[in-house]
Amino acid sequence: MRRDRFRRAVTGASVILTLGLATIAGCQPEAAGPPSVDELLRQTSIWQQPTLRIGVAANEPLMGEIKDGVRSGFDVELARYLARSLGYTDESDVEFVTVRTDERIRFLLAGHVDIVVASLSYTEERAKLIGMAGPYFVTNQAFLVPKASAATLRTEDDFKEKKVKVCTSGSSTTEDELTRRGFDRSVVQDLQDCADGVRSGKYGAMSSDKTILAGYYSQHPQDLSYVQLPFGADERLHVGVSINDRALRDLIAYFLKKSYDEGRETGASPWLTAYNNTLGAWYLADVDDISQPEPLDVPDLVDHDDKVSPR
């Protein structure tokens, strides 16, 4: 009899304990999933900001330029896509701010722009000053020379032995590389001066990222030729943001990856569309070369119907 009562007591206690644990488990909040685009947007400095200010170049054909009062180029098309993704669906809500090469980081630090999409290559030094999302394009350094000189300028030694003056833009990774390798170089603010100088004979060559050179080559293919040397590291183009706005950096990285992946199998991704409408005909790359690496450090977000909340 005692044993039966003991068993009934133990059984009853077990049931109560089981129900109690189930009740406690039911009261526990479910494990949080990844944040949504909307939630991250609310953490950015641009939340409810009526205008998005984007720094872009105005003197880089096919990348960032102004034609008949309209901005165009690969960087500009990508900037428009990013603006729409961030909720600035009307271009009247976007202010494009012209930035020279030597102004890009300074404009971000001073708060003159919210993001910069202007052939900004990643370096560790820059990453200490600003946030960087990308890469959205990987290219390399090259040269444009007069067509008549192309046959005699094939190596680094050719440039140095012939004392070729190479023109490039200030505060650029190209300037650093030319200086490090001991080229005779001349630095300007506007790369158009380089292109004009090469055609007039003032300079023997101009050097920059191949994406930028493609634009100047497209304007004067009868006068200029590419020279590509095994020269320098890959140039990984990034979008610049304030170093204090991690949420905005993460959103930019997320949408850059989406621009690359969405519709890529059919050739209709936003990234490929921008490339084909701008650089594609002049970059002189095989299709395999355009299998760009995806952006790094991309957060896992929930994108509700590909939309963000109104600002």
UniProtKB/TrEMBL annotation:
Solute-binding protein family 3/N-terminal domain boundaries: 51-270
PROSITE patterns: PROKAR_LIPOPROTEIN (PS51257)
Gene Ontology biological process terms from the UniProt entry: amino acid transport
Signal peptide stretch: 1-27
Keyword Transport: yes
One Gene Ontology CC term in the entry: outer membrane-bounded periplasmic space
Keywords: Signal, Transport
Keyword Transport on entry: yes
Family named by the database record: Belongs to the bacterial solute-binding protein 3 family.
PANTHER family: ABC TRANSPORTER GLUTAMINE-BINDING PROTEIN GLNH, AMINO ACID ABC TRANSPORTER PERMEASE
Name of the featured protein: Glutamate transport system substrate-binding protein
The species this protein was found in: Catenuloplanes indicus
